[in-house]
Each structure stands twice: as C-alpha cells, then as structure tokens.
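## Example record

The block below lists the input lines for one assembly entry, exactly as stored, with component labels intact.
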Amino acid sequence: MEKIVEQGLLYDFYGELLTEHQKSIYEAAVYEDMSLTEIADEHGISKQGVHDLIKRCTKTLQSYEDKLHMIRRFEAIKFSAEELLKVSNSADMSGDELRKITGEISSRIIEELT
Amino acid sequence: MEKIVEQGLLYDFYGELLTEHQKSIYEAAVYEDMSLTEIADEHGISKQGVHDLIKRCTKTLQSYEDKLHMIRRFEAIKFSAEELLKVSNSADMSGDELRKITGEISSRIIEELT
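Predicted structure tokens for the full assembly:
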C-alpha cells in the first residue's frame, strides 16, 4: 500500500515527463488499480511488458526526484504551513506570541523556497 | 537583464536535468557572465556552438517548467509567505485579526501544495 502512495506522489509531481503511452499504463496501474492482466489485455502487450514498463517508469520518476527534490521540498513547506495553521487555531496564545511564531514560521517557509 | 534572471531561475530549478557538459557551459554564461568567446576558447568549441547550446538548454529548461510548473507554484507560495511575514510585522493588528489571517493564509499555502 505504501508503495502505491509513493508511486502516486512521484506521478503527481513528475508524471508529465513520461510519454503518453507510459502515462496511460502507469495511471491504470497506480490510480485505477487495474490488474496487470487487465492492463495487458487493454493495451495489447504482455503482462511482463506491463510489469517492466511500470517498474521502469517508477525508476525514471524516482530519478527526477533524486535530482530535483521537489517532493522533499514541498513536504518541508507543508509541514511548516500545517504548524502555522495549528498555531492559528490555538486559542490559548497571546497576540504577541502568535505574532512571533507567525514571523518565524513564515520566514522559514520563505527560506525553504529559495 | 530580465532574460538572465529568468535563465538563472530555470537553471536553479531544473539545471540538474542537463548533462555535465551543458551545465558547465550554461553556468559560465548565466552565472559567471563569461562572454561567448571566452567560453568557446575554454571549451574548445566555436562561438556559434556555445550560442546554440545555451539557446537549446534554455528551451529544454523552459519545457520542464511548461510541464511541471514548479517555478510558478513556488512563486505563488512565496507570495503568500511574504504576505504572512508582513502581517506578523504589523503592530497595529489585534491578536484575533492576526489569528484569522494567519489561518487563512496558511490554509491557502497548504492548498497550493496539493
């Protein structure tokens, strides 16, 4: 299950760099949860061919992440933004404290973006 | 000048997808501000060759942005984070107002990340 999520995340970020053919097979496997046999039948290729293509695409998508680190960077920013949202919802914090923490976290987000 | 900034930004985001050869020439032109003649001499290729390589690389980098939109997404998040930083520095805002705006902007950032 975790592997599927990971593949979905890789595809969300870098899927546009695959060919149309790769995309349609990868989507069928990862998003539509079709079996290898179903995909093979639909695309007129062997089950082994589908398996190899998905494996190769995951490797390609992972290599983009290894070079560009966009998922890692987005996750760091998301962590900070969620912290900020939590802080803004905590009623037992003074305006001055909130001001200080908001300043710190927004500065950190800006840093993470550069 | 604006074109140089743009090339630098493209390179910051997607430069790792170029080959080592492309990277060294692109960096010399965009970051070290070397002339085409200097780069040509250093790499033992023609001035026209350097010119063409830089043009081709910019096109390649731009095509990554056209597909992935990472620069556009990062800039939207940066805009929100800077807004938040400004808000946290404005002394004439009540704790409740700050809480509300912080909640809104951090939610927007989380949305921009997904």
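The longest helix of chain A spans residues 47-68. The radius of gyration of chain A is 20 Å.
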